[in-house]
Amino acid sequence: MQWTGVNDLREKYLSFFEGKNHTRLESAPLVPKDDPSLLLINSGMAPLKNYFTGLEVMPGNRAASCQKCIRTPDIENVGKTARHGTFFEMLGNFSFGDYFKEDATKWAWEFLTQTLEIPAQKLYPTVYVEDDEAFDIWVKNRGIAPERVIKLGKEDNFWEHGSGPCGPSSEILYDRGEKYGCGKEGCAPGCDCDRYVEIWNLVFTQFNSDGKGTYTPLPKPNIDTGLGLERLACVMQDADNIFEIDTIQDIINYVAKLSGVTYKQDEKTDISLRVIADHIRSTVFMAGDGIVPQNEGRGYVLRRLLRRAARHGMLLGIKGDFLYKVCDTVIALNREAYPALSEDADYIRKVIRAEEARFSKTVEQGMELLMQVMDALSQSEGEGEKTIPGEDVFRLYDTFGFPVDLTVEIARDRGMKVDEEGFLHFMHKQRETARKAREEQNVASWEEDLLAGISFTGKFTGYDTLTANTKVVALVKDGALADEICEGDNAIVFVEETPFYAESGGQVGDTGVISAGKNIFKVTDCRKSPAGHTMHIGRMVSGFIPVGDPASAAVDGRRRSSIMRNHTAAHLLQSALRQTLGSHVRQAGSYVSDSVCRFDFTHFSACTPEQLAETQRIVNSMIMAALPVHAAEMPIDEAKKLGAVALFGDKYGDIVRVVTAGDKSAELCGGTHTANTSMLGLFKITGESSVAAGVRRIEAVTGCGVLELLERHEDILAKLGAALKATGPLELESRIAAMQSQVRGLQKELDSLNQKRMEENLGALDGSIEQLGGLRFIAADLGDVGADALRSAADRMKDKYADIVGVFTAVSGGKGSILVFAGKDAVKAGIHAGKLVKEIAALTGGGGGGRPDSAMGGMGDPTKAKAALSAAKGLIENRK
Question: Which of 65, 356, 630, 864 has the highest CB neighbour count under 10 A?
Fold first, then answer.
């Protein structure tokens, strides 16, 4: 067998199965589509569930893919072992009721022994101990000696996950040689050592399990195989582990060059190099699929991986941000198989660099406090492993955004533990409400079972009409099928064809009525079932409707028109944003209803008022241009040539629907739109905000929504005018300016009185001065005064006493301030006001900093001012 690179192996595999009449599938995005059970795609078959369940049909019933996957259960072991990694590619060939064991084993053996020329004597098939059929195929049809086909038990060779489709499997093991063995006399295929490694798993899905031990044969068995690309590369390159195959080595070598270390010279630096190489692969592909760093869900996985990689860069001595440079290497290595990485390179680089910069700030702020906590623990009495209290861990997380897993790792390096249960207690205490489970899961629990055997198209006709004569094909009431629904019943109605749009792609579902004469069902929402049928959700307001009866379906036309205006506006908005902010802008989500157009997009800073005004002007110019809006289905390649913009991270079929607005906008979209941009009337941006790191949100209104907004603003202006006794809106500005001038004058008088009162009290403060390690020390709350008054009082103290160190607090207007000051002799003695104020402010959940002689901080919780003031003496004493 010849040395073969990763990219060549991927292509050889896919080309081989294309030659066996398999449809070559592009890798699905890492974000699962319509599968709430998965956080991230973690196997080759995960994106293909609908094909295995029969909800979708694969052309030819055969497919082959190379699927990018991420698994993070053992993230802390990445880099420390040769086996663990978070990102991998899974090769797989699949049969959906077509071929079975004979062809699956034949093609697997042919690919390994003929295409890749792996010596047959190094390969050992395994089979489930009761699967005599598979054993006979390997021995009689593939010509393998019986003693080389290993029979293993259910734990090793039977794929089953609760109830549902399952079946025996057959793995192909590769013998890496004696040097990888355990040396035991009984070492043979099936041993847990590293000598015999699984490279391909063939799953024969032939049964349906009831979860209680009963297995019923499936009418059409399936094939699901998995061949790890990186593991196969280890075989073909005679590499010890995945970190030594060509593509990963290129990343390691680049990071080694950046850091000035050499791989395989020091195990400690080797671990950091491997962590970075693995994690940067994951982060590049996750960012490329539209995932952004966040504090929960898949966004947290990205943030955790990126920050672990950044920390290991620090351990290697790399100064400043560097991961955004490494991502270029990852993109270059994968651009052939994943061309979208090159197209989105600038965006991916910005996501990684922005998060790395945030992490640097987080580390700087939180590391000092963590070190103080660990130093205090180290000096505390008692033997055994020390544990960082959960409250301290929570404070680091809540105040500084310091990742808990990073706290755990740093503590482990110091031989300490973390009270993770205590941390979770404080997290739970902080949360006001638990996140709700996705409603789609509730739908999935009954739809597939209840509608089994009911055949209907559920065709959507709502692009062209808002009414339809149809037939009721199924009714669901109280979670069960019903023969009829009567007045007062809450139910779900399924019809043969419908003009109702089901919530999808960010567009809300339609409302309206389904009627049969005087029998009326009010539709309050529409959603898609897991099988893609439209669920008309609502209430029977009069009469009754039985299954099988003809019915009329009518959408609320006025509401639909408003929704269409806002949806078309979202398309125009994306086009305008790309003109105003740059081509890196991509849709990251949307919500369009009858009242609002909400658009989330990738951008790394808040939009300026000028940018928002220009964006709004561009959208309105497209509305005034009365551009025709057209929708057409076409091959995906043709849509790309038109420049059609897709939703970031989404995967589309071969035929797509493209919505264009003149030559200004082209997007892949399944929603409903106006026929002409002029039908939007006007477009007005009502707000811009941050959704997540690197994702901004704009909210806007159109048509009647603009008129309603103007009416609300006019009402507010009228009320303000009445309150300020202005004769009209034009007089408001001068009235407000006069009032502000009056307030400034009053504030100046108040400040003068407070200053005078404080000066009178300064003499009394002298009596509060005490000696502290050879210095004068004072800690006092000055009451309801501003920051300038605090500084003035501190300056007077420093002028009077060169050896003084002091802490003044004040709470004014609900905001708390902390000032730490030090005379010149106190500074010479080692006092640094900037460092002290950071520690003291942290006790209130705030922060601060400044010069050695004077530094100001803000309180997070002003009610903790007294406690912080009390603790200040101890903190200063420890500094001495």
Answer: 65
Distance CA(576)–CA(656), nearest Å, equals 23
Crossing angle, helix 787-800 and helix 729-766, to 10 degrees? Answer: 30
C-alpha to C-alpha distance for 578 and 601, rounded to whole angstroms: 10
Q: With CA atoms as reference, report the closest residue to 330 among 280, 256, 271.
A: 280
- How are the residues of the chain apportioned to helix, strand and coil, as percentages rounded to the nearest 5? 45, 25, 30
Helix (H, G, I), strand (E, B) or coil at 727: coil
β-pair type (123-128, 164-175)? antiparallel
Residue 679 makes CB contacts below 8 A (sequence gap 6+) with 561, 564, 565, 568, 703
* SS3 state at 487: coil
Beta strand extents in 387-486 (DSSP E only): 387-388, 417-418, 459-460, 467-477, 480-482, 484-486
CA torsion through residues 486, 490, 494, 498, sign: positive
How many whole angstroms separate alpha carbon 161 and alpha carbon 169? Answer: 13
pLDDT for res 520: 96
Q: What is the reported pLDDT for 382? A: 65
47 HSE (CA, 13 A, CB side):
25
Give helix 390-400 / helix 420-430 axis angle, nearest 10°. 50
User: What are the φ and ψ backbone dihedral angles of 346, each rounded to 5 degrees?
Assistant: -60, -45
pLDDT of residue 847: 87
The neighbouring-strand residues paired with 142 are none
The reply to whether the predicted model has a pTM over 0.90 is no
How far is residue 860's CA from residue 870's CA, in Å, rounded to a whole number? Answer: 17
What per-residue confidence (pLDDT) applies to 442? 39
CA–CA separation, 730 and 732 (whole Å): 6
- Token readout for 825 is 């002799």
Q: List the Cα angle 84/85/90 in 5-degree steps.
A: 115
- Rounded to whole angstroms, the Cα distance separating 686 from 566 reads 13
CA 163 to chain centre: 30
Tokens of 652: 């589309």
Q: What is the pLDDT of residue 292?
A: 87
Pairing mode, strands 804-812 and 775-781: parallel
Q: Which pLDDT belongs to residue 401? A: 65
Residue type, position 118, single letter = I
Residues with pLDDT less than 70, the chain: 381-384, 399-401, 430-450, 452-453, 647-652, 758-763, 879-880
Report the alpha-carbon distance of residue 462 to residue 468 in Å, rounded. 9
Instruction: Give me the helix-helix angle, 833-842 and 865-879, nearest 10°.
Output: 140
CA distance 458 to 502: 11
List the beta bridge partners of residue 591.
598
What is residue 148's DSSP assignment?
G
The maximal CA–CA distance of the chain, rounded, in angstroms, is 105
Question: Which residue has 């003009």 as its token pair?
Answer: 499
Bridge partners (DSSP) listed for residue 202: 170, 225
The amino acid present at 138, given as its one-letter code, is W
Token reading at 397: 């997380």
Closest of 558, 529, 515 to residue 450, by C-alpha? 529
Q: Output the pLDDT for position 439.
A: 37
Half-sphere exposure of 298 (CA within 13 A, CB side): 23
Beta bridge partners of 217: 207
In angstroms, the CA 5 to CA 244 distance is: 12
Contacts of 664 (CB under 8 A, 6+ apart): 572, 575, 622, 625, 627
User: For residue 660, which amino acid is it?
Assistant: T
